[in-house]
Amino acid sequence: MSEINDLFANQVSYHCTHITNDIELRISTLNNLKIWIKDHDDLITNALKTDLGKTPTESYMTEIGLVLDAIEYAKKNIKKFTKKQRVHTPLHEFFSRSYYINEAYGNVLIMAPWNYPFLLSIEPLVGAVSAGNCVILKPSEFAFETSAVIKQMVDTVFDAGHVAVVEGGADVADELLKLNFDYIFFTGSEAVGKKVYEAAAKNLTPVTLELGGKSPAIVTESIPTDIAAKRILYGKGLNAGQTCVAPDYILVQESVKDAFMESIKKYITEFYGNKPLKSVNLGKIINKKHYERLKSLLKNQKVLVGGGIDERSLKIEPTFVDANFDNVLMKEEIFGPIMPVITYSTIDEVIKYVNSKPKPLALYLFSNMKEEQERVTRECHFGGGCINDTVNHLSNHDLPFGGVGASGMGAYHGKYSLETFSHKKAIMHKGTRIDTPYRYYPFDEKKAKMIKRSVK
C-alpha cells in the first residue's frame, strides 16, 4: 500500500507545479485520449465482450461512442468554461467589478463500477482532466479485462503524475479512501456509497455519488402499448439489465396490461429470437455471485414471459413477473433482466407509491396526456428520466445526469462534468482611486442612514 501513498504524493506534487492549468495541454491530452480510443476500439470491445458479453455495436453505442462525444464536447468548451465569468456588482460596491473563476479542485479520486466499466471510468475522467485536476482512477476489479485495457490506455496517454490507474479490490479502495483527496467521484451501489461518504467526511472531502435505486416505468392507457413495450424492453435489455437507470419495475394501468404483455412477448422474439439464451444480443451476468442472486429472486415467482436461465453462460432471459408491492422483487434494486409487473387504476396511486419509497435515479412515464405528464414530473421525486422513452436522457450532454436522496448526489455530463470537478472561486476587484468613508469606523447616525439607503 506504500505504492499508493507514493503515487498520491507524486500527484499532489505534480498538481502544485500548475502544469494542468495549461488549457492547451488539457486539449492536447484529451485529443491523444480520443486517438488512442479510436485506434484501439477492438481492444475495448473485446474486453467488454469478455466481461459482460456485449456485442461490438452495443459496446460502441452505450460506452465508447458516449466517451468520444464527451471528449469532443470538452475540447470545444474548455476555453469558454475557463474564462472569467463576470457577474453583476451591487450599486453600493461601485468602482468594483465581480467575477468568478472555475478552478480545479486539485487531486481527484474516481471509483468506477463494473456494469459500464469503460464509460463510467472514462467519462468522469474526461470531466476531471478538462477542469485541470490530477486523477487516480480505480476501475472495478469485477470487469478485469476492461480494467486492464483502461490501465494500458492511461499509462500510454498520461503522465503518472497527471492520471494513474490503481487496480485491486475492496482493500485497495479502502486504502485510497484514507488519503486526503480534494474530491471523490463514486459510481456504484448505495451500500458502498455510504462507506465512501463516511470516509470522505473524515477529511471533509466533497463527493459526487452516482448510485441507483428502483426506477419505475409507468404505462398508462393513453399510450400505444406497442411503443411502450418496445422502449421499455430496450431500456431493460441493455447490458442484460445491469444498468443503473434501467427500468426496475413496471406500473401498468390494469386496462392495458394484457395488450402490453402481448407486445412484450412480440419484441422479446424480435430482439432475441425464439431462443434468447442463444442470442448474441443478450448480454451475460457479470459473475457467478450476481447470477445466483438473480436466480434466487426467480424462485416461486409467477412468470408471465421468459424465465430461462443458463448457468454455463451466466445468461438469464428477459423475464417479466406478475407481482404486487409486497413481492420480494420490490425490496431492492434488481440490477438484472427481471422485471416485476404491477397493475394500478389511477395515476394518484402511482404518485403516492413512488413518493413513499426512496427517490429513484430515474423515472419513465408513458403517457400522451399532458395533465399526467405534468403531474408525474412535478409531483414525483427522482433524479431524471424520460416521457415516452427509457434510458436515453443520459445521452444528452445538455442535461445534468445524477441522482437525488438515496439515488445519489451531484451531477455530470457535458458542462456539468466541468462544473462538478471545479470550484467557483469568487473575486471582487475594487478600484483604488475613490474610497467611500461610510463603511469605516466610527459609525454614527449619518452613516447609518447612508447604509440603509444603499440597501433596497
Account of the protein in words:
- This protein has 456 residues and is an alpha/beta fold.
- It folds into two domains: 2-211 and 410-424, Aldehyde Dehydrogenase, Chain A, domain 1 (3-Layer(aba) Sandwich), CATH 3.40.605; 216-402, Aldehyde Dehydrogenase, Chain A, domain 2 (3-Layer(aba) Sandwich), CATH 3.40.309.10.
- It contains 15 helices and 18 strands.
- The chain has helices at 2-16, 23-39, 41-52, 56-82, 119-130, 144-157, 170-177, 190-202, 225-237, 257-272, 288-297, 347-356, 370-379, 415-420, 445-454; strands spanning 85-87, 96-104, 107-111, 134-138, 163-165, 183-187, 207-210, 216-219, 249-253, 302-305, 309-310, 315-316, 319-322, 338-344, 362-366, 384-387, 408-409, 422-430.
- A seven-stranded mixed β-sheet has the order 10-13-14-9-8-15-16.
- Strand 11 (309-310) and strand 12 form a beta hairpin.
- Helix 3 (41-52) packs across helix 4 (56-82).
- The longest helix has 27 residues, at 56-82.
- The radius of gyration is 25 Å and the shape is globular.
- The model has no long low-confidence stretch (mean pLDDT 96).
Measured between the Cα atoms of the first and last residue, the distance is 59 Å
CATH structural architecture of the largest domain = 3-Layer(aba) Sandwich
Q: Order of strands across the biggest sheet?
A: 10-13-14-9-8-15-16
Low-confidence runs (pLDDT<50, min 5 residues)?
A: none
What is the C-alpha radius of gyration, as a whole number of Å? Answer: 25 Å
> Beta-strand percentage?
15-25%
Give helix % range. 40-55%
The CATH topology of the largest domain comes to Aldehyde Dehydrogenase, Chain A, domain 1
Quickly count the domains: 2
Morphology: globular
CATH class of the largest domain: Alpha Beta
**Number of helical stretches of at least 4 residues:** 15
Structural class: alpha/beta
Largest sheet: 7 strands, mixed
Give me the CATH superfamily of the largest domain.
Answer: Aldehyde Dehydrogenase, Chain A, domain 1
Mean pLDDT: 96
Q: Strand tally, please?
A: 18
